[in-house]
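COURSE: Structural Biology Practicum
ASSIGNMENT: Worksheet 4, Part C
STUDENT ID: 0417
INSTRUCTIONS: Below are two proteins. For each, the amino acid sequence is given first, followed by its structure token string. Answer the questions at the end about the second protein only.

PROTEIN I
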Amino acid sequence: MTENIVRKPSWLKIKLPKGTNYTRVKSIVQQHNLHTICTSGRCPNMGECWAAGTATLMIMGDICTRSCKFCATQTGKPLPLDRDEPVNVAKSIALMGLKHAVITSVDRDDLPDKGAGHWAKTITEIKRINPQTTMEVLIPDFDGNALLIKQVIDARPEIISHNLETVKRLTPMVRSRAKYEVSLQVIQTISGSGILSKSGIMVGLGETRDEILETMDDLLKVGCHVFTIGQYLQPAKSNLPVAEYIHPDVFEEYRHIGLAKGFKKVESAPLVRSSYHAERHL
């Protein structure tokens, strides 16, 4: 029996990494043993972003306690937290000369506070060493614990992002532990704090147009300000297959619909990822 393979269209061609800035950022990442979602998540925009002198740094290690079916990050038992990481990340941002930094993390369900305290320390150190640098943080759901989310909020990054990843119907299939309603609660907590809130989804997993529009409405109801939509790309054979490649014209339509519905900013294109053009979202 022949397996049905959805062939990748021409509009998903990725430029090869090159340039002085790309080499410099790569060198800093390697020398300081930094983890980036650019590499762990096999992001298609890594060449473009690193060449522009930006990178999304990933804290708390590169081993996640969850095993979401869309994600390429390694799953297993994480190592203990590195107490020097908050300072090292802050110093690396200074070396890179970033005007806007994006920080994300693996899920650390093994820790009593899910890593919230480490998150707060990292944000605080980045602000101390880089007072002119603005920051976006892409956080886990902390199992919806508002007190843990508040630790991140109290550190006052400029943008706090938490991704829904997919529509409600597909969430149990795509995400290993996270729940759609819990993620909405996380975003509502962020929005209620006065900090700019952000979320995103991938398409091409089998969702319908109506489900995408329903997701937009659900996010707007909890006060979400910025919304991103990108094409799901299967990072490895062990991950979910692509059900469909969405045409760029459809992404543009979703962008216009999202803005008309009330989002302050919508990034919608095949290669858009959560942190893509993040500096424009302030």
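PROTEIN II
(use this one for the questions)
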Amino acid sequence: MRFIDECEIRVEAGDGGNGCVAFRRERYVPFGGPAGGDGGRGGDVVFVADSGLGTLQDLTHQRVLRAEAGAHGEGKDCYGRSGRDLVVRVPVGTIVYDRDTREKLCELVEPKARAVVARGGKGGRGNKHFATPVDRAPRKAEPGEPGETRELYLELKVMADVGLLGFPNVGKSTFVSAVSRARPKIADYPFTTLEPHLGVVTLGDPRRGDSRSFVIADIPGLIPGASAGHGLGTRFLRHLERTRVLVHLVTLVEEPGRSPLADYRVIRSELAAFSEELAALPELVALTKADLPHVRAAYPELKTEFEAHGLRLHLVSAVTHEGLDALLTAIADCLASTEKRGEDQETPKSSN
């Protein structure tokens, strides 16, 4: 299944049913009076967040989503049946905008969250509502109101605790496959990953009750100018906006002007250009491919360079699993500290 993180779609709520003009027709009741029922309400178009979905691909094949119209009112005071709501499943993390005004209508960030994106029309009243002492046999009724129609733009941002950053081919996909059950495509050439992949990392033993888990996102590799859209960078960077911790992966490459510290600075500048809030997130830095002799030999000097900038450089290998446990523990501790800071900020201070 292709990963689709944006699409446009038209939604049409159901029209309300018309009210009815009718009169009682009973034996020995020559002036039975009005008995027209009301029309039914039109159905809504409702989006529901489904944790089992990870892409908007299903919606790209449906240009129009239309809810059921309400039934018309009938005689003998029979009201029309309300139209059924159209419930549409979308991935968790979906943001819904009005396509024309770009106004944000809703953001579905919790499983089973619901949002009405188009409301059905109200049913029209039957003629019995228009009876007066002067006009006891009204011959008028209301038409049903039309349902809302909207052109929507949907955008998906993946829901993950940790976001992996780095240049193409630094080992992000291999790292994710080594620490979780995710199996992204891996090959020895740049831009192997063309879509985000999520992996669940579990530390400790769940049976003993001391386990910790978090979701890690493998974001496609970034290049200089990503914040301006180069290499589809803006589409990739937005998937990091819901993460709480960033992990920068760097490694040694034989290219002019490239070094682990230089690569880290480029990624940092792209983050700051794209979003100041994103650049302010807690971060860790790891040197990958420790199983290669030249990387291991360069680590002590690189560690000193990063320490001079106030950064601790972890050494890891996704092939031999060296250093992975220590890095994952550091990530879990960093996530725990961010949760604690968030709780402290939400707790109101007591007045003396």
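ANSWER KEY EXCERPT:
Q1: The chain has two domains: 6-156, 162-346.
Q2: The chain is about 20% helix and 20% strand.
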